[in-house]
Design brief:
Length: about 300
């Protein structure tokens, strides 16, 4: 079974990369989940791939729950298994897809964590813009909040992806899907200052296309962005937990609070399904209720 599984898994990974456009990170996660699943199958007697049925898969899912895994994690592993067997079914490597009768449990959508506009502004003001690092960090923070892009999109943003005169950036989101996002004047100004006054003086900067570089001339990592944001949040005495994704949540929520339509916010965030964007309306409803109670004469 192992050799057959490895061969099929390799072909499945190539399919996800080449045809579905999944990132290497996502494909690596699928491989880990499927390897764990087939380790479970092997312990049950080493049945062949074609002999795996719904009950084997359900047994695996139950074992994960017994180990204390969250429903979200279990659902993710089921998604990997479902994709794998659907792939084999399309290739006619198996007679029937054992996942067809398995329903994915619905999860309660957690409300995104946001901070106030006042706290955002406090954090944006923390970098010392008299230093090259401060200019870089101010440009980075301004861009994250102005566009709502993911941290993975920030660290891979190329210089060619900035359209200065149009006031847009081009980013490649999940599944390498391309989208244009408006920047706004303040963020564009800081980005220009960084690129013109700081970046070109960084040693080895001409060897990289990524916009944001370390002082050693290397592209910043997602982890370093997280640490930078945490640092400035502490400097601004912001007590709430904050991460790069918090700025994305704030971008969406603050837009909707000020009257932006859901479809436009969906496009800027790069959400495939508008239901993903709709979670922000729960936050704005709370905001509207507070405004109504505070200012309506008969509230």
């Amino acid at each position: 079974m192992n050799q057959t599984f490895e061969n099929e898994l390799t072909q499945f990974a190539q399919y996800l990369l080449m045809e579905k456009g999944f990132s290497l990170h996502t494909v690596s996660g699928y491989r880990m989940d499927l390897t764990q699943f087939f380790s479970f199958v092997k312990k049950r007697g080493g049945i062949q791939i074609g002999d795996v049925d719904m009950y084997v898969i359900l047994g695996f899912l139950r074992a994960l729950k017994v180990k204390g895994m969250s429903q979200r994690t279990v659902n993710r592993k089921l998604s990997a298994i479902r994709g794998f067997f659907h792939f084999l079914s399309r290739k006619r490597e198996i007679s029937a897809d054992p996942t067809e009768e398995i329903r994915t449990p619905q999860l309660r959508q957690p409300l995104p964590h946001v901070i106030s506009l006042r706290d955002i502004e406090k954090m944006l003001e923390q970098p010392d813009t008299k230093t090259p690092k401060g200019v870089r960090d101010r440009a980075m923070l301004e861009l994250l909040y102005a566009t709502g892009i993911r941290v993975s999109e920030l660290v891979t943003l190329p210089l060619q992806g900035i359209f200065w005169s149009e006031g847009f950036i081009k980013v490649f989101g999940k599944g390498s899907k391309e989208r244009l996002v408006p920047i706004g004047t303040p963020a564009l100004s800081w980005l220009r200052a960084y690129c013109d006054e700081v970046r070109q003086k960084v040693p080895g900067s001409s060897e990289h296309e990524e916009v944001f570089l370390s002082r050693l001339g290397r592209p910043l990592s997602r982890q370093s962005i997280w640490m930078i944001i945490k640092h400035y949040a502490l400097m601004g005495n912001i007590r709430e937990k904050i991460s790069p994704h918090t700025l994305r949540h704030c971008f969406a929520t603050h837009l909707l609070e000020r009257g932006a339509d859901l479809r436009s916010v969906q496009m800027m965030l790069g959400h495939v399904d508008i239901s993903t964007t709709q979670v922000y309306t729960h936050l704005t409803k709370d905001h509207l209720i507070k405004v109504h109670k505070a200012f309506h004469p008969r509230a």
